[in-house]
Write a structure and sequence with these properties.
Blueprint (H helix, E strand, L loop, with lengths): L4 H29 L81 H13 L9 H6 L2 H13 L1 H7 L1 H11 L5 H14 L8 H8 L4 E5 L9 E7 L2 E10 L2 E11 L7 E6 L8 E6 L6 E2 L3 E4 L6 E3 L7 E2 L4 E8 L6 E8 L5 E9 L4 E10 L9 H12 L1 H11 L18 H15 L3 H13 L9 H10 L3 H8 L7 H10 L6 H9 L4 E8 L8 E7 L7 E8 L2 E9 L6 E6 L5 E5 L3 E7 L5 E6 L4 H18 L4 H13 L8 H17 L3 H14 L4 H10 L68 E4 L2
Antiparallel strand pairs: 1-2, 2-3, 3-4, 5-6, 6-8, 7-10, 8-9, 11-12, 12-13, 13-14, 15-16, 16-17, 17-18, 19-20, 19-23, 20-21, 21-22
Length: 785
């Protein structure tokens, strides 16, 4: 029987279906029939050179947690320019899969530690930042804090092995990643030690340093013919540089840290200037950062290098350059006949181009501003934009700046219309002159104020000018500072705070009692007052909560005497009429006041007798207090001090009412410091318990990885990773984070616990006053009813 084509096709399809069913059926039923199923190809196992940690099977099955972003250690700063992207990692670094602890704590014990274990821990912590995702670049580099801790502990325990494995160089690089101002100090110590131990010599540093860390390059500057007693060394990385000073001494060469300019997100651009500021015939080095992506202009570092040790010449206390706007800035030196001058030129606000020149000189004590010039150059038809520059100048740069800009615009003021296209009122020129009169009065130039007020009264720009009456009122009060304050609360453009300062400084009061009497009988609204020693000089200052007028907010002021003259200092506005003053002392002995558990400030003295208020970023005092004690504990441990003493201090802190940890990082950071103190003190059971607690309570934290390796190290493989270019994650928007107190770790030089303790270095994750160590064991708190 012949089969036609359609029948053959149908039969073929049936046979193909049966064959497929048999094959698939064999695959599915083979495991149940005891037959060996066809093996599925798999990837080759990870080479044994990659460190691994044996997984622990929990008593109760639990889902494997996912990595969460590292808690932000400092509030992220908003920066205008886009950062320069850096290479992303080409392969995933070794990681440790987090697992939950089993129920039985006693099944673990503190594992004997060795250089190989330490090396494995360092390797894993160096890899940790690359396991994070959806984080900002700032958070990425802050995550190297954990590698820094692992390296510092390892250098303390195994100094000989540390030198062989280059741990100190890796730790210095992590200090740079953390934007620590002490990274340069670490590099200077490493170079000095190598030269003194004849491992290298000054002429060979250019080749020797990259062999220690290929991520570093060295540039040597032989400054000028007048500077033949040393060399400027600049260690460069992709995230900034460290400036060092190499000089010869009687006992050999030494290297000193001058400036640590690291920021791996917005890399600084450093340039050097020279000028004989001190007029000793030997020029000083001026270190300038040309890359200023924020509205603040960083002040240069100026060093006198002629002595045995470099000496930094500081700017006047409290001086800073905060432009408040985007700017273009350059620094230059000038050498007039009298004394050398350091000048900074800035241009801001293109709609009304404004050019600012500030000049500085050395006065024997500090670098002071001696002159400032302001120029405006608006394009024709755009003069109205300059009004915004004036408003900003008065608020951000001071009255003198506002006056200088306004007087340059006065001859052609007002323009035809505002920036919204609305014509100015007929008496606009009088308003401009009235502002100038008020600003001159508050700047202490009574003659200039009188002239402007008289011009408005005698020659107004409009017959019915609305500025004639306030000009008459202010002019009549110029000779009476108390009356001037009263007028100031009723007219525009006048700052009542400045008026109150002027009034108090012109007062004839001879003590606080008389001054308080004058305040209570004045037009001020006094809500509460009292006395407190704000600066620990054994003398009580007065404080007052007052209102300038019924409609103004209450304000907290300090009243005191300086060189026999009364002074008034504004601190902050008040939400509550009852202040709470928490008094504590930071490292260096500076007393700080925490006002209403919100704002910290200190009362500072100037060498010539002046006083000013220095404010600090808002923070939670007790969290700061806890964090700074943990910082001190790490400093002492890595510096070789008694671990038993550190342990006792941490236990006392934990029992005190001042102990607070607000997030996973803070709590785990404290627990790990305590566990390490137990371990170094030889308390194996207590150390095991604390490490187990970290693993159990914070399984997703990098501290859990560190703690877990101490009690469950798994198979340890000696690893010596080769440093490579620092990978960074793809830039992502910085998530909104609640500012948390910065915890400042501590860098130390390699030292065994048995040696005499040496001062330790400490990286600052955020260079702010809140990172100082708090030394008062029990802050005092005064609640005023």
């Amino acid at each position: 029987m012949k089969l036609n084509a359609p029948r053959l096709l149908i039969i073929g399809l049936i046979l193909l279906f049966i064959a497929a069913a048999l094959v698939l059926g064999g695959w599915f039923i083979a495991p149940y029939l005891g037959e060996e199923a066809s093996p599925t190809p798999t990837r080759s196992p990870i080479p044994s050179s990659t460190p691994t940690v044996a997984a622990t099977s929990p008593a109760v099955a639990a889902p494997s947690p996912t990595w969460t972003p590292l808690p932000s250690l400092t509030p992220s700063q908003t920066l205008t320019p886009s950062p320069t992207p850096t290479p992303t990692p080409t392969s995933l670094p070794p990681t440790l899969t987090p697992v939950y602890t089993p129920v039985a704590k006693d099944s673990y014990q503190l594992h004997p530690w060795s250089p190989q274990h330490a090396n494995n821990l360092i390797y894993l912590m160096e890899a940790y930042p690359d396991t994070l995702s959806s984080i900002s670049q700032e958070e990425y580099f802050e995550a190297y804090y954990f590698a820094y801790l692992a390296q510092s502990e390892s250098i303390l325990r195994y100094p000989d092995f540390a030198a062989q494995e280059l741990w100190p160089w890796d730790r210095a690089y992590n200090l740079a990643r953390l934007d620590s101002p002490l990274a340069a100090s670490e590099y200077a110590a490493l170079i000095t030690r190598a030269i003194q131990e004849h491992e290298t010599n000054p002429d060979a540093l250019g080749e020797w340093i990259p062999r220690q860390d290929p991520r570093l390059t060295l540039k040597v500057y032989s400054p000028t013919e007048m500077v033949d007693y040393g060399q400027v060394l600049r260690l460069e990385t992709e995230g900034g540089s460290a400036t060092l000073w190499l000089t010869g001494a009687e006992n050999g060469f030494r290297t000193y840290a001058l400036s640590s300019d690291f920021d791996f997100t917005y890399s600084p651009e450093i340039t050097y200037l020279w000028s004989d500021f001190t007029q000793d015939g030997k020029p000083e080095l001026i270190i300038v950062n040309k890359n200023t992506p924020t509205s603040r202009i960083p002040l240069p570092h100026v060093f006198d290098l002629a002595g045995e040790h470099p000496k930094e010449l500081n700017f006047a206390p409290g001086h800073e350059l905060n432009m408040g706007l985007g700017h273009s800035t350059r620094w230059e030196t000038q050498s007039p006949i009298e004394r050398p001058v350091l000048e900074v030129y800035s241009s801001v606000y293109p709609p009304c181009p404004t050019y600012i020149t500030r000049r500085y000189q050395w006065n024997g004590e500090w670098i002071e501003e001696i002159q400032s010039d302001y120029e405006v150059s608006p394009a024709p038809g755009l003069e109205h934009y300059c009004e915004q520059v004036v408003d900003h100048a008065v608020q951000a740069w001071g009255l003198e700046a506002g006056i200088a800009i306004m007087e340059k615009l006065l001859p052609e003021w007002p323009p035809h219309s505002t920036s919204e296209g609305v014509p100015y009122p007929p008496d606009e020129r009088d308003e401009w002159r009235f502002r100038l009169g008020v600003y001159h009065a508050q700047a202490g130039n009574q003659t200039g104020a009188e002239e402007y007020f008289a011009e408005i009264i005698n020659a107004p720009s409009a017959f019915n000018s609305s500025w004639i009456e306030p000009s008459q009122e202010f002019l009549s009060a110029l000779d009476n500072s108390q009356e001037a304050h009263s007028v100031c609360t009723r007219v525009p453009f006048c700052d009542p705070r400045q008026a109150l300062r002027d009034w108090i400084e012109s007062s004839s009061a001879w003590d606080l009692t008389q001054l308080f009497s004058d305040l209570y009988t004045s037009q001020l609204i006094i809500i509460e007052s009292g006395r407190h020693d704000f600066n620990d000089d054994t003398l009580l200052e007065g404080w007052v909560i007052l209102q300038h007028a019924p409609s103004s907010k209450p304000e907290f002021w300090i009243f005191t005497f300086s060189a026999g003259e009364p002074r008034a200092l504004f601190v902050d506005t008040m939400e509550s009429p009852k202040p709470i003053l928490t008094h504590y002392v930071i490292q260096g002995g500076t007393p700080l006041i925490w006002l209403n558990r919100q704002k910290s400030f200190s009362l500072e003295s100037l060498p010539e007798g002046g006083l000013f208020i220095k404010t600090y970023p808002p923070s939670y005092f007790y969290a700061d207090y806890t964090g700074q004690n943990v910082h001190t504990a790490y400093l002492d441990l890595f510096g070789g001090f008694s671990p038993a003493k550190v342990r006792d201090d941490l236990l006392d802190l934990r029992k005190s009412y001042s102990f607070v940890c607000l997030n996973t990082f803070e709590c785990a950071n404290f627990s790990y410091a305590l566990g390490l103190a137990h371990e170094l003190a030889g308390q194996k059971v207590e150390a095991r318990d604390k490490y187990y607690e970290i693993w159990e309570e914070y399984p997703d934290s990098p501290f859990a990885i560190m703690a877990r390796l101490k009690i469950d190290p798994g198979s340890i493989t000696t690893v010596t990773p080769t440093p490579t270019a620092t990978p960074t994650p793809t830039a992502t928007p910085t998530p909104t984070a609640t500012p948390t107190p910065t915890v400042t770790p501590t860098a130390t030089t390699a030292a065994a616990p048995t040696v005499t303790p040496t001062p330790a270095l400490s990286p600052c994750l955020s260079v702010t006053p809140t990172t100082d160590s708090i030394t008062s064991p029990t802050p005092t708190e005064d609640a005023y009813p």
